[in-house]
Write a structure and sequence with these properties.
alpha+beta; 3 strands; 84 residues
Length: 84
């Protein structure tokens, strides 16, 4: 049998943590500092996932109208190059 629990309205207010897409400005700044042909390597920490980091990079690249390609790396790193 399931147990029902009543929650107050305050439980459904938006969290006071970081706003959604708060990472975007940092990623955009990093991408705009690179010229075509240059690239970067991001080192994952803690529970970060490679797919999440790539999604964030892709989002920033779309916003900045840039293209990137990824290179194979160990599971704790994301390496990429800005391309034409």
């Amino acid at each position: 049998m399931v147990r029902f629990e009543r929650l107050p309205k305050s439980a459904f207010l938006k969290s006071q943590g970081r706003p959604r897409n708060s990472y975007l400005e940092e990623y955009r700044a990093y991408l705009t500092s690179l010229e075509v042909g240059e690239g970067g390597e991001l080192i994952l920490e803690g529970t970060e996932k490679k797919a999440t980091i790539k999604n964030r990079l892709n989002h920033a690249a779309r916003v900045e109208n840039r293209k990137i390609r990824y290179l194979r790396t160990p599971k704790d790193r994301v390496r990429f190059q800005v391309v034409e």
